[in-house]
Design a protein that fits this description.
A: mainly beta; OB fold (Dihydrolipoamide Acetyltransferase, E2P); 8 strands; globular; B: 397 residues; alpha/beta; Peroxisomal Thiolase, Chain A, domain 1; nine-stranded mixed sheet; two-stranded antiparallel ribbon; 13 helices; 11 strands; 32% helix
Chain lengths: 139, 397
C-alpha cells in the first residue's frame, strides 16, 4: 500500500450555485474565466469584501473591479463534522489586499489546516449550472 | 432622554413545554402571552403595545395581533435581531412607554424547531436559482459555503483559542455551571449534572465545539409585560425597574480588520451600564446568552466582567455557579440545558433575571440580596453579523 493511500481524506464539499445579482455579475463572469476580482475604492483607496457598488468605508460610488492573485492567510476556520457529504472546513482568509473573505478550504486535511497558513484561491465548479466559486487551498 | 426608571417589567412567563407536537406556534404565542398577563395581573385588553420578531407567524406583528385579539394596540415594533430581539424589545418598550406611546407592552416569542419550524442549525440557505437574484447582498459570497450556527461560532472559538490560549476545558466549565443550575429546574430539557470531562469527550460537532458546547433545541415560548410606572403601581407584583438598555450591530463591514474575538457587547454593554449608572462589578446576577459555550465566554469579556482574553480563566472552577462563584449566571440552566425556544434564547434570559430580582428563582439557585441584574444577548452569528442587546434591571425596594 502506498503512502498516498494512507493520507487522511482532504476536506471538500459540493458547492451549490451562488446567488448572482446585477451588482455582482461581473465577479461571477470573471470567475468563469478563472479570474478572482475584488472591489477597490478610488476615493479612499481601500479594498473591500464582499463586493459592493458603494464603498463601505467612505460611501463613494467610485469603486472599481480589480483582479487579485487571491493570496492570503487563514484567519480562522472550523471543521464541520455534522455533514452528509463528509467533514468540510469553513473559515476566513485575510487577503494580502486586506479584506477577509468567507470561504471553504480544500486540498488540505483537517490536521494540516492551521490559522496563519498561506493559501491561494482556486475555483470550484458549482451544482446546478452556476458559475464556479472561489475556495482556498494551501499556497 | 434616558429610559432609566421610566418602565417596569411586571409580567414574565416561560412556557413549560420543551417539545410541542400538538401545539401550534400561534397557540404557543397566545399561551405565553396569557401566562405573562396573568403573572402581571392584567388582561389582553390592557395591552396597547405589541412587540415581536421573526418567529411570529405572518406579516410583522399584524397576524399575531389579529390572532390574539389585541384590539387596543397603538404601538408596534417587530425589530428583528435573531435571538436577542426580545432583549432589544425590552429597551424599545421602555422607550415607547417613556414617550407615552403605550402603557402596557406585550413581548412574545414562540416556535417549534423540533416539529418543522425554524430548524436547528439555521443553515444559510443556498440559492440554486438560475439567473439573477436580488436577495441579501452577502448571499452569493457566503451562503454557498455551508455556514451554520455551529461552524460560524466554531470559527470564533478557534480564533479566541489562538489569540488568548482559551481551552476546551475552560469552555466546558460554562456548560458544567449551567447543568448545576438545571438540575433544580423541573422544566429543564437536560437536568443531569455534567463534568468537564463529559463535555470535552462528547462528540465533536464543529471544531472546537463539542456536542455539549451547544445549546438544546426546544419548542416553546415566552412572554414579557413591560408597563409604565403608573400601571406598575397598581399591580400586586414585585417591581423590576428597567435602568438602562443598549444595542449594537456587529458585522465584517467590508472585511478590513476582521476580529472575531469580540462581539457587539463591547458597545451594547457600556451603553446600558452608562444609562443605568452602574458598573459590571455591581451586578449580582447575569443572564448571558448561551447558544454555545464560546458565546458566553466572549460576552462575559465584552461586558467587562473580566479583562479581554481572560474569560477562560474567569469561567473555570465553578465561578458561574450560583452560591459558589463570583458571577452566578443562567440559573434556570440557560439555553445550554434548560430551554432555547425556537433557537432564540433572548426572552428566557430576561425571564430568569426577573425571577432572580423578584426572589422567585429556585431556592437552590436564588442569589442572595439580588437587587441588580443584567440580561444580555447576541442574535444572528458571532462569526458573520449579529445584533447585541443588553438590559440592566433593578428590584425596586
Amino acid at each position: 500500500m502506498s503512502e498516498t493511500q494512507e493520507r487522511p481524506a482532504t476536506l471538500s464539499r459540493p458547492l451549490p450555485s451562488p446567488a448572482v445579482s446585477i451588482e455582482t455579475k461581473p465577479f461571477w463572469d470573471a470567475a468563469a474565466d478563472g479570474r478572482f476580482l475584488i472591489k477597490r475604492c478610488k476615493s479612499c483607496g481601500q479594498a473591500h469584501w464582499y463586493p459592493r457598488t458603494y464603498c463601505p468605508f467612505c460611501a463613494s460610488g467610485d469603486t472599481v473591479w480589480e483582479e487579485s492573485p487571491g493570496e492570503g492567510v487563514v484567519y480562522t476556520y472550523s471543521v464541520m463534522h455534522r455533514s452528509p457529504t463528509g467533514p468540510y472546513a469553513i473559515g476566513y482568509v485575510t487577503l494580502n489586499e486586506g479584506p477577509a473573505v468567507l470561504t471553504n478550504f480544500v486540498d488540505v486535511t483537517a490536521d494540516e489546516l492551521k490559522i496563519g497558513m498561506k493559501v491561494k484561491v482556486k475555483f470550484q465548479p458549482t451544482e446546478g449550472g452556476g458559475p464556479p466559486a472561489p475556495v482556498f487551498a494551501p499556497a | 432622554m434616558s429610559i432609566k426608571g421610566k418602565a417596569y417589567i411586571m409580567g414574565a412567563y416561560e412556557h413549560p413545554l420543551r417539545d410541542a407536537p400538538d401545539t401550534s406556534t400561534p397557540q404557543l404565542h397566545m399561551e405565553s402571552a396569557l401566562g405573562a398577563l396573568a403573572d402581571a395581573g392584567l388582561t389582553k385588553d390592557d395591552v396597547d403595545g405589541y412587540f415581536c420578531a421573526g418567529d411570529a407567524p405572518g406579516f410583522g406583528g399584524m397576524s399575531m395581533i389579529d390572532y390574539m385579539g389585541l384590539k387596543n394596540v397603538r404601538h408596534m415594533d417587530s425589530t428583528e435581531t435573531g435571538g436577542s430581539s426580545y432583549i432589544v424589545h425590552v429597551g424599545h418598550a421602555a422607550q415607547a412607554i417613556a414617550e407615552g406611546k403605550c402603557q402596557v407592552a406585550l413581548i412574545t416569542l414562540a416556535g417549534r424547531p423540533r416539529h418543522g419550524g425554524n430548524r436547528p442549525g439555521a443553515r444559510m440557505a443556498p440559492s440554486a436559482a438560475p439567473g439573477l437574484t436580488d436577495g441579501p447582498p452577502e448571499a452569493g459570497f457566503e451562503n454557498i459555503y455551508g455556514g451554520s450556527t455551529h461552524n460560524t461560532y466554531g470559527m470564533c472559538a478557534m480564533r479566541h483559542m489562538y489569540e488568548y490560549g482559551t481551552t476546551s476545558e475552560q469552555l466546558a466549565w460554562i456548560k458544567v455551571a449551567a447543568s448545576h443550575h438545571a438540575q433544580w429546574n423541573e422544566h429543564a430539557f437536560l437536568r443531569d449534572v455534567v463534568t468537564v470531562e463529559q463535555v470535552v469527550n462528547s462528540r465533536m460537532i464543529s471544531d472546537p465545539l463539542h456536542l455539549l458546547d451547544c445549546c438544546v433545541v426546544t419548542d416553546g415560548g415566552g412572554a414579557l409585560i413591560v408597563t409604565s410606572p403608573e400601571i406598575a403601581a397598581t399591580l400586586n407584583r414585585p417591581k423590576v425597574k428597567i435602568l438602562g438598555a443598549g444595542e449594537a450591530p456587529k458585522s465584517p463591514l467590508g472585511g478590513q480588520g476582521l476580529d472575531l474575538t469580540y462581539s457587539g457587547a463591547v458597545w451594547s454593554g457600556p451603553r446600558a451600564f452608562e444609562e443605568a449608572g452602574v458598573k459590571p462589578a455591581d451586578i449580582k446576577y447575569a443572564s448571558i446568552y448561551d447558544s454555545f459555550t464560546i458565546t458566553v465566554l466572549m460576552q462575559i469579556e465584552d461586558l467587562g466582567f473580566c479583562e479581554k482574553g481572560q474569560g477562560g480563566r474567569f469561567v473555570a472552577d465553578g465561578n458561574l455557579i450560583s452560591g459558589v462563584g463570583k458571577l452566578p449566571f443562567n440559573t434556570d440552566g440557560g439555553g445550554l440545558c434548560n430551554n432555547h425556544p425556537t433557537n432564540r434564547g433572548g426572552i428566557t434570559k430576561v425571564i430568569e433575571a426577573v425571577r432572580q430580582l423578584r426572589g422567585e428563582a429556585h431556592p437552590k439557585v436564588q442569589v442572595k440580596n439580588c437587587d441588580l441584574a443584567i440580561a444580555h444577548g447576541t442574535g444572528g452569528s458571532l462569526g458573520t453579523r449579529h445584533g447585541s442587546a443588553t438590559v440592566v434591571m433593578e428590584r425596586e425596594a
